Amino acid sequence: MTIDLTTEAIAKLSPAELISTLRQVSPDDPALTGVDIDVIARGIDPRKLGRDEFADLLGALGDLADGGADLDLARMDPQNFARIISRASKDQVEAVTARPGLRTRVLDEVFRRMEVHFRTDRAGATRAVVHFKVTGSSEDLYEAIIADATCVINKEATREPRAVVTLGPVEFLKLATGNASAPVLFMTGKLKVKGDLGFAAGFMSLFDIPKA
After folding, report:
1. Could you give the CA distance from residue 11 to residue 39 in angstroms, rounded to a whole number?
2. What is the pTM of this model?
3. Lowest mean pLDDT among 1-5, 9-13, 52-56, 193-197
């Protein structure tokens, strides 16, 4: 069976059909040649997907990318990435982050983009280390090191932090896509800070968060 993944064909597929198609195609299938992940992203509206369908779709894209297809989340336009993450419901985010491989893929990508979107003009002479603990079905630690007008992300603790921020995956993804305020999350008990509360509250202002 010939699989059609042209822009026009993708636009006509229902979410279930798109997921099924992506699961059927192999990473080296000629049908994937020239397929733009942003074309797929523009057709994704989490609000039209079921709880597990959103995770299924991201998982299918991830599996193809792992196999060598040019469909890695890192290639997705910042606005498209922010849009699909910000529109995902609490249940959908929890379904994504309940799958270990998919959880790691999404969190890694969000933190990678923090390095890219760091505002050197706002950093000035700031030197600080912040540890993020993302809880939920498991706990992941990411370290952000701000120094010399750059931001470097590590997936382990290498330095003493100025602040340790602990929050769930839903709250973290909302914060990272500009759909939540750190002070509000703190006041409602959804974000906990150990260390320099003032610095942690303004930390996200050091980043140019794409608008969905």
Report:
1. 8
2. 0.90
3. 1-5
